[in-house]
Amino acid sequence: MESVIAELRAALGDTGVVTDPEVTASYERDMMPLAPYGSPLAVVLPRTVEEVQAVVRACARARVPIVPRGAGSGLSGAANAVDGCVVLVTTKMNAILEIDPDDRLAVVEPGVVNLDLRAAVEKHGLFYPPDPSSYDWCTIGGNLSTNAGGLCCVKYGVTTDSVLGLEVVLADGEVLRTGRRTVKGVAGYDLTKLFVGSEGTLGVITKATLALRPLPQAPATLVAAFSTTAAAGAAVSRVVREGIVPSLMEIMDRSSIEAVERYLRTELGAGPGCAALLICQSDAGAEAGRRELAAIEQVCASSGADLVHSTDDVSEGRDLLTARRAVLPALEVYGAWLTDDVCVPRTRIAELIGGCERISAEVGLRIAVVGHAGDGNMHPTIVYDAASEDEFARARRAFDEILALGLSLGGTVTGEHGVGKIKREWLAREIGPVGLRVHREIKNALDPHHLFNPGSMFDAR
Ligand SMILES: Cc1cc2nc3c(=O)[nH]c(=O)nc-3n(C[C@H](O)[C@H](O)[C@H](O)COP(=O)(O)OP(=O)(O)OC[C@H]3O[C@@H](n4cnc5c(N)ncnc54)[C@H](O)[C@@H]3O)c2cc1C
């Protein structure tokens, strides 16, 4: 292993290679407390694609596994180290190489932070839609590799819907360029989409060409309170059925409303009997925005909302979104949180929330449900005492029961956080033996020695 380290230092210089165990320990895992992790041999911080190629070639020769890593904000253990691996951190490859307002695209390195890109393109009157709640620290490379979602997916889709092309360093060190700079393009297999969401198991993304949109209008916001989750679920289904496309449609259950109200010392206007709150926005602007919200208001009222309030005051809307984004820190007041990620058909949201209430009672732990109602992507979040082995075991049980519930409702085991090292068995269950075989064949074709992120997503053998 000494020779690999020497090769890495020769390629990246001493500052690009870290072997001090006290420092490498901070790159061992991401934000998912359940996932296993190991101790890396080294952490490397390349600055260029050539340095990434040199790392991959050195590791390939010595058969040392590579775990690509962005900011480590992941919630599935996908960036967790395995023993003896090299963790390849992209945070020094953080240049925005091009913003082209005429062709409405940007070319970026993988370590660019999502919010930095959004801010940079906004100066050109442009918009990069994918907005995971972690957008102030997660990287574009991480977003691409997990196919990240966020709050605006109901109208603008997930990360893959904003990607035109990629540059990827493959397992043999060669550079693959996928995709295009054009609006349309169907030449060959869609390799871009293959790499998006591949969680670092097929190669290292070193550059991305991203599609931009015109900056939307300032959003108008609506909040509706329901005394039953069934009524809130019915409102979501009717919004979808009537063809209304808000730019955001989020749901908070009773438990998350209570936690946020206590944490922010504010009233969300939900009232004492409120079981669920819907927060919707329209960024259609002016009259079109007002019409869209009026239509949603009518749907909510006729679905049994106890209260509906609309505003085009941007700061009031921002406060409501701040409350929505505050759910995880608000839950920290009660203990450690473990957030799950299931996506169900939008007609089944109320059943998912009801099922989580049942699971919460069974395991004796608080479970708050918050989610992207417009996509059916729910994040039931389990609160437990991290110092108690018993509570940790019950949290783990609840986590799995929520996944089983999601599948039984016709859903999927992950809507945006990915499979990583915690949902491998669940992926196999969802895609079945033929799906798993095809995954293995693709992995073996691109990464025959299982160099990239071994043990993540599925067992490659
Ligand atoms: C508070 C909080 C809120 C969150 N909210 C959301 C949300 O709303 N929506 C959402 O989708 N996620 C959310 N997440 C999860 C997480 O932020 C996303 O998964 C994000 O995309 C991870 O980016 P990262 O840079 O931290 O990647 P990491 O966690 O470092 O890595 C994630 C995966 O990408 C791979 N990877 C990273 N860079 C590369 C590269 N250049 N080439 C190949 N593989 C690479 C890694 O190997 C790993 O498999 C949230 C997380 C937190 C902590």
Describe the protein.
The structure is a single chain. This protein has 461 residues and is an alpha+beta fold. It has helices spanning 2-12, 21-24, 49-62, 114-122, 140-146, 153-156, 191-195, 229-241, 254-264, 286-302, 314-325, 327-331, 349-363, 389-408, 424-446, and strands at 17-18, 42-44, 66-69, 86-89, 96-100, 105-108, 126-127, 163-169, 175-179, 204-211, 213-214, 220-226, 248-253, 276-282, 307-311, 336-339, 342-343, 367-372, 377-384. Strands 12, 13, 14, 15, 16, 17, 18 and 19 form an eight-stranded antiparallel β-sheet that branches. It has a five-stranded antiparallel β-sheet with strand order 5-6-10-8-9. A hairpin with a 4-residue loop joins strand 18 (367-372) and strand 19. Helix 8 runs antiparallel to helix 13 (349-363) and helix 13 packs antiparallel against helix 14 (389-408). The radius of gyration is 22 Å and the shape is globular. The two termini are 25 Å apart. The mean pLDDT is 96.
